[in-house]
Amino acid sequence: GDTIEIHGARIRLNGIDAPESGQLCQDPRGTAWRCGQQASLALSDRIGREVVSCQQTDTDRYGRMVADCFAGRENLNRWMVREGWAVAYRQYSTAYVAAEDHARTGQRGIWQGRFDMPWDWRAARRSGQKAAPPMQRLQQLAGQNWSCSPRRTCSQIGSCAEARWYLQPLGRQA
Questions:
Q1: Where's the TNase-like domain (predicted)?
Q2: Dmax of the chain from CA atoms?
Q3: If one looks up domain 3-128 in CATH, what number appears?
């Protein structure tokens, strides 16, 4: 969902992170679905038979080109985030934060239910652990009588500062 291949070259889409191919998400009813596979299919369907052009921004630690890619005039990186198939990868770029906000408020793609941020899912997998259920850490800190409304999951809280803001009235610290 965040890597494409053009003429045998693997290209990582800059500034976004999509669920991994083996990653599952939960729909609003709590039913698991293959969001990683769906993200990849969405990107493939969006590209279709269009010519893709990419502007390299970096090379990652795996030797892949990191780039902003376009199908026609549409920025595919932004499209993936705006449609809810990827999140803004703030560690590398803030260019797609507004697109993520649009997807989150519209409950598009992975934002329709619960999911682990792709980097958290990968880290848990590397450590041999299952990723913690969404909001578990905040529930532990805040107890049961708390509300982060309108936020429903940790992935909807955009920063540590925002988490602290929600916890402050409870006398807790993140």
A1: 1-113
A2: 56
A3: 2.40.50.90
- Measuring CA to CA, how many Å separate 164 from each of 142, 170, 171, 173? 11, 10, 10, 6
Q: Is 83 among the catalytic positions?
A: no
Q: What angle do CA 56, 80, 49 make, to 5 degrees?
A: 75
State the Cα–Cα distance between residues 142 and 149, nearest whole angstrom. 14
Q: What is the pTM of this model?
A: 0.74
What does the pLDDT look like over 8-51, one tens digit per residue? Answer: 999 999 999 999 999 999 999 999 999 999 999 999 999 999 99
**141-173 pLDDT per residue, tens:** 555 555 555 555 555 666 666 666 656 655 555
Is 125 known to be catalytic?
no
Q: Where in the chain do CATH 2.40.50.90 domains reside?
A: 3-128
Residue among 34, 46, 64, 151 flagged as catalytic: 64
Task: With residue 101 as reference, give the H or E element that holds it.
Answer: helix 97-105
